[in-house]
Amino acid sequence: MNINDKAKSKEEIRRERLLNGSLIPSAKKMQKDLNILAFQKEDYIVKNGERDYVAIFSLKLIEYPSLNFNSLASLLCANLAQRFRISSFYQKVDKKLKDLYFLSIFFHEDAYYIVHDELEKLKNGLFPVLTKYGFQIAPLSLSDIFVFWNLNMNSEMLSLDAKNIFSSQNYTSYFEKPKLKKKEKIIFEYKDNYCVALKLQSMAPETKGFPFENFKDFHKIFFTSDTWKMTEDDMKVYDRILRSSFYSYKNEKNIELVNFSVSLILMDLDRDRLLRSLDSLYSKCEENGYILSPCFDEEENCFYSLSSFGIIRYLNMHTTELKQAVSFYEEK
User: What pTM, to 2 d.p., does this model score?
Assistant: First the structure.
């Protein structure tokens, strides 16, 4: 018996063991190829590491046709200790940009019962707050996760059964790592699209909000941002490292810090149009205080991670002020 179990009742110990035992292992090939180790079918949780778990939700804004990222980011940063990813998928249909939005919440815990309890707290705490502010949030079932993942990878909306995918080798034709054909230095080909993979390299101290209006120039876009609020202990370590490097450094205002990452896949059926739109986006980003750079030699990992809502890991984290990360979404 674990020494911590002595302070718990038999009912608590039994409950924790039942929850930990409710994880269903995935097929060995899936564990090896995708690092998806197990899943939990009631909570719709995917275990994608020894201590890593992810829950994925669809997002809509009830009152307005498009999502107000600024309000959403502020609410999530204020209420979430876990790393979270906002995933946005845009595609031009009949000259109009159609959009889908998702929220991934990542848990790093020693046992599954802790993840379950944290998720219950969010359902009773954060989610009602999001609803109050006009956001509609709904969990993706395990089958839905694979339906949308396949849609991102193959541009097909198919009916997929998670049970069959997790327990067999059938996933390989849908979710194997994308084979990207490199055409030029930063352009690669996937299916019928010319593509560019980008990441946020740096942000100026004063920014004007990311130029989302430029997205209308592209045929298809995968866009994600990851945010992880630093704990007090993390901030102390960060301060200590900076003080050791810069003697005069002192965080006198106790500024809240986050780790922040942004990645994009931009696609178009026409190569020249892609390059023209890319030049325009670069210019507007620089004007607004952002520097983007290509994901050299990481294009496949970036594409794989963005299409899978972060189940496949790819990050490019920077430490920045909380208010600066939130201002990324300000609409100007």
Answer: 0.90
